[in-house]
Amino acid sequence: MKKILALTLFFSGLLSGCGVAQKQAPFNGAEAWQELEQALRQHYAYLHRSDLDTDALFQEFGARATKATTPQMFADISQQFLRHFTDPHLNLGPYNSEDYSVYPTGSDIYAEFVPTSQAESTNKSDTLKLMVLDVKAGSAADIAGILPGQEVLTIDGLSVKHAVEKVFGEHFGQLTAAQVNYGANISLGGFRNQPRQLTLRRDQHQQALTLAASYDAINTLKDGATVTVRQFGEVGYIRFNNSLGNNETPDAFKAALNQLPESTSLIIDLRNTPSGGNTGVAEPILGHFAQAKSPYQRYQVQQKGTPYSQATMQTAYATPTAPAYPHPFVVLAGHWTGSMGEGMTIGLDALGAKAVVGTPMAKLLGGIKTIQLTKSQTWLEVGFERLYHINGIFREDYRPTILTQSADRDPQGNDPALTAAINILMTSGTLSTSALHSEMH
Question: Which part of the chain is the Tail specific protease domain (predicted)?
């Protein structure tokens, strides 16, 4: 009897060790969706700020997500759902090669849909066209010669409308104007680390282009200088190279100021900060422009059981950092000014910038944190902290004091924001027009 029992236990253990007796539980889409929805409703500071019917959106995509049979299927549906909020800070991962590049880091063309004139339209139902409004300086798109004023016809073999529909998993006609523009710019950034195929048109002439992956140009900055320093006559210039998350940047900025002892004014270029950063880097830099402890932004953090509308409004301060910069300064911002770049822009505006020049910024909402979602083996990046200019407007609603049609490139390939800033600051006769053109190129 003991021999039989021993043999039974032996074979039972052998089968278990071979995986025959163990079977993994099937993926539960309903539990995964419940966990995602609860996290958003509890932590997302901007859930009800948009004009979306959020309850209807939860219901529609919840019905799709609960039918998911794998974590990957669930992630793909959830990503489409989150894009409806048009918030580049609202993301779900992990990512793979079939996911879109994260916007705006993985972006080098900014485009919007505009009405098609009756003379241009060959199809009465075709009332919109996608037009390039800006091109990121130094990017693959810039090197390829793409300029504002060109129309985008296809993206990776799809018509622009179908490309947008793929981003959202919705019919084009169901989407808002903000959503279709957001979707177009995500699509233009392409898939992660993959080359892009675009067809564009200018003056009836079509051009097919293959562009390098949108991340390539931004990745090359990791091995370079955190800031670039130049001088235009008596006008100093410091550009951040997507470096607001690098702890070496404050010292590099201080060294840059020390390289400009003869400058009588300064341009601070935040147009290449799409990946954002953190306050530990930003605040020491802001301190060079603070004569005393000074507010640079306001914020709200939700407390348990208290809605954001009732959360205490708090203030963030910059304290003086040596050397102080006592002269006039102008800030450059644009479509690739993101997150902490946006925070520095409104902060420098609050600290007395003579002007902020450029276009509306990337509109990354709030301060973010990452929440692990165990039911779907994913993570959620979510804005839990509402951020404001010190004048009380949401950070994402801030617009430069001097708006330009484009920030990085104009239709002739020139730098419109930098030109405008130099014109504001330049002392009469300090820099001739020909010298200005030479030094800027």
Answer: 235-392
Tokens of 77: 């549906």
Query: In this structure, are 379 and 357 located in the same domain?
Result: no
340 and 434 housed in the same domain: yes
Task: Express each pLDDT in 109-152 by its tens digit.
Answer: 999 999 987 555 555 447 899 999 999 999 999 999 999 999 99
Residue 97: CB partners within 8 Å, gap ≥ 6?
191, 192, 193, 194
> Which residues constitute the domain of residue 409?
224-361+398-440
Distance between CA 339 and CA 272 in Å, rounded?
11
248/60 Cα distance (integer angstroms)? 46
HEC states along 86-124? CCCCCEEECCCCCCECCCCCCCCEEEEEEECCCCCCCCC
Q: In what order do the strands lie in the sheet with 402-403?
A: 227-232, 235-240, 265-269, 329-333, 355-358, 402-403
| pLDDT digit string, tens, across residues 337-390 | 999 999 999 999 999 999 999 999 999 999 999 999 999 999 999 999 999 999
Percent of the chain at pLDDT > 70 equals 89
| Residue where a domain terminates, one of 193, 215, 237 | 215
CATH number for 141: 2.30.42.10
In 3-state terms the chain splits into helix, strand, coil percentages (rounded to 5) of: 35, 25, 40
